Fold each of these.
Amino acid sequence: MGMLRWGAHLLLLLLLLAAATWTCAGAGAGVTSEYRRKLEATVDMPLDADVFRVPPGYNAPQQVHITLGDQTGTAMTVSWVTANELGSNTVRYGSSPEKLDRAAEGSHTRYDYFNYTSGFIHHCTLTGLTHATKYYYAMGFDHTVRTFSFTTPPKPAPDAPFKFGLIGDLGQTFDSNSTLAHYEANGGDAVLFVGDLSYADNYPLHDNNRWDTWARFVERSVAYQPWIWTAGNHELDYAPELGETVPFKPFTHRYPTPYRAAGSTEPFWYSVKIASAHVIVLASYSAYGKYTPQWTWLQEELATRVDRKLTPWLIVLMHSPWYNSNNYHYMEGETMRVQFERWLVDAKVDVVLAGHVHSYERSRRFANIEYNIVNGKATPAANVDAPVYITIGDGGNIEGIANNFTVPQPAYSAFREASFGHATLEIKNRTHAHYAWHRNHDGAKAVADAVWLTNRYWMPTNDDV
Ligand SMILES: [Fe+2]
């Protein structure tokens, strides 16, 4: 009898335990996608691939790319490379290809990197532009002229719609090409690029010719719409063994950012205001400790320069993610999270975008800001003021996919999948934005993860369930 009663108690206990476990798992458990891409090597496209082709014509401008030349897009900085000789620094621009009635004079730079010498790298800022207007522009006037176009972003306004493309860790493999093609098919207005561009540093001697091939590869998009640059670890090109001890040398020579317009003192952290979005770019590989220039700048930015009435959407870009449940690059973003997370939660940041980890992950609105050295409270907790963290380092570079997630999936993680792809963030008005992640192995329009985001300032509802 006694044994039987014991057995009944044990059974009851087991049932209760099972129910509790099931309840925990069922209460908003995140999804670790079972989707597995076809196993194949992630290899760079060969140097004679059509996407790397040098444009025809003597000294033809190549590697054309644009980014904002001021904070809102009434200026646009055009960059390009000439390989044979310096050529002209002039950009002509206007409202039609036949009427390029304005001209801007740029400057040029070159750099050496170990045994490599760059071409002539031109930068020219077109100023006095009107918002939401299409412009044609041309350069290469001494020799081979090439003509492109772009549309300036809408003037900052609380309900101005805008569609961002979100791409990170792109590289120049066949998968990179697929990512870019999918993004082009989905048609964003500008790209928020979260760092790691060419992966030239994976080649012997950091072969900087791969910086050139990468720029020719992405020209088909970035010559026609601004990409907002974040510096990743593959932009460091710090190689004392080669005598190259100036960090970011190729990146800073090639990819200007409008940091001065944003009150910053370095090109690696700055902000832009595009339509209804205020976008802050942070630098994972520059100092961010208390009293450093980046720390001081961000404090002032959040306190005095963010205006949610004018630009309701507050988006932060960085390379190394703060919330990453992949064993690759695990906790590398932790020191910056400790430094800045409370500021972002207090500021009600809508979305934080990062790269670095070569897979995809989206978080719920969680924060881990209660901890101090004596209270031990170090568990991320649901927080309606917290941003959604998105890791989008799945552009498709040569290092391959990061397919080693931590188990179990942490409570803050809503969806994660080890696939290549890109995302779009389509802001509709001051309250709603539609976020969608596109996996490369589906059709361009197919969405593998999507969520409607509500604005943290104007409509802070529970949008993550
Ligand atoms: Fe990285």
Note: The pocket of fe (ii) ion is lined by residues 169, 196, 232-234, 319, 356 (CB under 6 Å).
Amino acid sequence: MLATPARSFPPRCRRIQAYKYNKPRSVRARAASSMAAAAETKGGVIGAGEVENGGGGGGGGGGGGEVSLREWQGWGTSSPVPAMVTEVIRELRALELETDSSMRFGGLGGKLQGEFKVQEDKKHRKVYDSLTDSERKLQFFAARQIACRLLGSRGYLCQKCWLPKEDCMCSRIVPCSLWDGIRFWLYMHPKDFLRQNNTGKLLWQIFGTQAATLCLFGITEHEEIMWHAFSHAGKGMVWLLYPNKNLFPKSVQDIVIDGVFRKTGGQDMDLGDEPLNFVLIDGTWSNSAAMYKRLKERWKLTWGDEDLPCISLSTLGASVMHKLRPQPSWDRTCTAAAAAGLLSELHLRPQLSTLRLDKQAEAVEQALDFLLDSLTSRRLRMGRSITRRERHKNCV
Ligand SMILES: [Zn+2]
């Protein structure tokens, strides 16, 4: 890896990471359940078990009507409603009629509740077992997770910031234009969809869904949109933020940026036709391996090449990050912090220094700060005090 100028990672980005790994016991328990499911995924058998609503405290949700295009896109995507999500919701509705019971979400995590949950478990396991193709199993798993999270969050979470409506932080977000030469792709695990402490969502809140686009793992419509954009942009214009996977590890210094200035011609910098595409894997570290594997397989299929270009950020101070999160991780930090780090490092490239990428990084850091404030004040209001140790960690 080439040396890059040192830059301390912004304290507020570390704070949110500290929050993420010092969660209440109930949250940790849910994380453990996610990991178990991920482990099953790697083995080719996706656990079709409980669906959680990730952020905790789902208050019943808004019930099981079909999802309209407007509602779907309101959650942060410009894609059509995924066909399989629609199908799963129809099946849930049909089960309501069959069993003469209503689907209900509640409790910590906003899970399906009561007798309906028992019936639904039986039904979806049967469907899952009937699928012989592993690709179909993944698609079904993803669609069901997303459908249940969506129904369980209806009327409870703010669609834009994915926080309970009473904690909505939207008014604090300051929109900012991302330089046109860059496009982010948030490759998100279904278990992170509508999760309150997810940070990838901040990117499209700040930059808009065209500059920072959600791509849900296992959702065909999303993955096709992303890969179509990659094919159009060309092989040299796609990078994945994921460490140590190349034979020769790469850094931001290795990104060839001439392509985004094709029309320069000695004049002021002008944009080429296609932006640089950066994929950020937005999931727990244990889920990220399966997501990386899927990207790599598609990469090979598209370009006949095993070498999915991964870059590591040099600004993530390994020693500090390691103290905060001793587990292995794909980037040692949260998704939005990784995006801010990337922008900050790109800003240090002389050709890009006038594009105000540092200000765009600051906008992300500021939004992370607001998210941490909202999550912390919610925890306080819910009656859980922050211990001195946590307070210290959150301010490292
Ligand atoms: Zn909001």
Note: The chain has two domains: 69-153, 165-259+272-382.
